[in-house]
Design a protein that fits this description.
Length: about 60
């Protein structure tokens, strides 16, 4: 197995909680320039007409 330089410290952090509980605010304040953030709300907003952070089950399969 080949390990790229710097990957030894790589970790995955999952942030979850109730709607409007501050998850997005927490991530924005805690992330660094090297973090990769997967934001389900932003992705859904980009692919549908759903407003940001407003889920619509007809767009989720």
């Amino acid at each position: 197995m080949r390990i790229e330089q710097g990957s030894e410290g790589m970790k995955i952090v999952v942030v979850y909680g109730a709607p409007m509980s501050g998850k997005t605010t927490y991530v924005r304040n805690a992330m660094t320039e090297y973090d990769l953030v997967f934001d389900y709300d932003a992705l859904t907003h980009a692919m549908t007409s759903t407003k940001y952070q407003q889920h619509n089950d007809k767009h989720i399969h």
